[in-house]
Design goal:
alpha/beta; Rossmann fold; nine-stranded mixed β-sheet; seven-stranded mixed β-sheet; 12 helices
Length: 378
């Protein structure tokens, strides 16, 4: 069994030698600690470094690789918790290392259920790191053996990686997708977190759909049931801004060549298929019916897209692209693409700066060619 206190002592000792690489650090720790403890310490140090983008207190927390990968970041967990009533007991069914458990316990009494014994130990330590242990009760059990339908509120995040293997089929997740949806529909209120690429045919008709992005990357699809519903059947939420775009049944926008302003929609907007709603806000058009770039005559500030001022556009070729970039005295180059089988990294590496002007290149496919838009951030 893992001796957490002994491993923590080894991690503390390792902090004295920040200049050492992993192999050198492991050998140095083994002078004082048993090999298993030294290995666990180095492994935890690595996981804590990877966790910094998710948790502000990562350096004090405990992780398993699967638990870190699946855990919600603080900004997402805080949003999840805000969707439950305060001071009402909730169950985090499959709490892992405690990412959502911490935020849920911050709003009131929360029960965490987890079948992996090591994850339970780590979750217990992690809720202590955040000072919410008084509101938190942990149960080491297979959630399928509990009568969770008797709970009032549930948070479910089915594990897509089980025993080191990633399962593509939702029926191989833990709990399987059918069971998760069944439980969510049986309680007063529930949230189910899942992948944003879940097939639409697998989404229950009575679940509200919310596609959520963090810093421009679509992280999850959140389904709401019962009293956790907001009265919005489909939406895209942009975090940390907290901006929400709601489906209104807007008609498909017309197609138009690039105008003065070009918009690169947020990934949650794209995942939720809400380009028509965004086009209405922008008074804009699609560049192509199958491509998620929009264009408009006037600039509109919006949290739902990144906006660029178009300089020029033309049919793409590497030769012509570099000629025009040199003419514009371009320096730093950012390349974005949609529907194009081109390596942006390779083109950026091949470009030799001709000045100090920052240029963004947007490539997209039409029915007959690839178009390059040269643009500037605004």
């Amino acid at each position: 069994m893992l001796d957490i206190d002994r491993v923590e002592a080894a991690i503390e000792r390792a902090s004295q030698r920040p200049e050492l690489g992993e192999t050198e650090l492991l050998l140095w720790l083994r002078r004082e600690f048993p090999p298993a403890v030294a290995s666990q310490a180095v492994w935890q140090i690595r996981l804590r470094q990877r966790a910094r983008h998710k948790f502000s207190r990562a350096e004090q927390m405990w992780f398993t690789p699967e638990g870190l990968e699946q855990s919600s970041s603080e900004v997402l967990a805080s949003y999840h918790a805000s969707r439950f009533p305060r001071d009402v007991s909730a169950v985090d069914a499959g709490c892992g290392i405690g990412g959502d458990l911490i935020a849920l316990a911050g709003r009131g009494e929360t029960v965490g259920v987890e079948r992996d014994a090591l994850s339970v130990r780590f979750a217990r330590r992690n809720v202590e790191v955040y000072g919410v242990e008084r509101n938190c009760y942990l149960i080491h059990a297979d959630l399928l053996r509990l009568r969770l339908e008797e709970a009032s509120f549930l948070f479910l995040d089915p594990a897509r990686r089980v025993e080191g293997m990633r399962w593509a089929s939702p029926e191989q997740w833990q709990p399987d997708w059918s069971t998760a949806c069944h439980l969510a529909a049986r309680v007063r209120g529930a949230l189910v977190k899942t992948t944003p690429v879940l097939a639409p045919s697998l989404i229950p008709q009575d679940g509200e759909r919310e596609y959520i992005s963090v810093d421009g990357e679509c992280r999850e699809l959140l389904l709401a049931f019962g009293e956790c519903k907001q009265g919005i059947s489909l939406s895209a939420l942009v975090l940390p801004e907290g901006a929400r775009l709601v489906a209104t049944g807007a008609p498909a926008p017309s197609v138009h060549p690039p105008m003065e302003w070009v918009y690169d929609p947020d990934a949650a907007v794209v995942a939720a298929h809400l380009l028509p709603e965004l086009a209405q806000i922008l008074d804009g058009y699609l560049l192509h019916p199958q491509i998620a770039y929009l264009t408009a005559k006037h600039r509109v500030n919006t949290p739902f897209a990144r906006v660029y001022r178009r300089i020029e556009h033309f049919p793409f070729s590497r030769k012509r692209l570099f000629e025009r970039l040199r003419a514009l005295r371009a320096g730093s180059l950012t390349l974005k693409k949609r529907g194009v089988d081109i390596s942006p990294e390779q083109l950026v590496r091949q470009w030799k700066p001709a000045g100090d002007r920052a240029i963004t290149v947007l490539l997209y496919r039409t029915d007959s060619s690839v178009i390059a838009i040269l643009a500037e951030n605004t």
